[in-house]
Amino acid sequence: MKLIVGLGNPGAAYRRTRHNAGFMVLDRLASKVQAQDTGRRCRALTTEAAIEGYKITLAKPLTYMNLSGEAVGCLARLLSVAPGDILVIYDDMDLPFGKLRLRSQGGSGGHKGLASIIATLGTEAVPRLRIGIGKAGDAVSHVLGEFSPEEEAVLDEVLETCVEAVITACRDGLQQAMNRYNNWQVRGSNQ
Fold it and tell me: Is 111 a known active-site residue?
C-alpha cells in the first residue's frame, strides 16, 4: 500500500458519526505510526509515515463523502499510485456493527464514497477495508448518527483492530490481512 484513505465528512457536526469511521481509523493510525503532517493536497488532509519501512501517504478527503473520488484521483495522479496500491477505509451498513471485511476489489455495494472513487479511478480493483456499522431505521439518519452507548463501549476495540489490519496489510500483504481479520468480530458480538 502506498496511499491509505479514510472516508468521512469534514466538520465537527460529523466527527463522531458512523459515516466517519474511516476518518477515525486514519486518525488512530496516524497517531500510532507518528505520521508527519503534510497539509492539504488535492482537497484532502494528508500525512506521511513509514509503516514497516514503507513510505505511506495517509489521506482524509475534505470533499464530503459522495465526492471522495475527486481527492483520491488527484492524489493517485500526484503521487503516481496505482489503484491496487490504495487502501480505502470506510463504513458499511451491510456488515453487522464491528465486523471487518478486507477485499482487493469489487463493486461499491451502494456506498457513494467508494462509488465515487471507483468512477474516478475507472476500476473496481481498489483494495478496501469495510467497517460494519449495521442497519437501523432510516439509512441516512443511521449513517449520520452517532454511535450508540453500546457501540461506544467497544468502539476503541474495533478501531484498534482496524489499525492492526491496515498495518498487517502494509507489512504482510492484503491476503494475509484478509486471512487474519475477515473473520474477526468485536467481543460480545454473536452475529
Answer: no
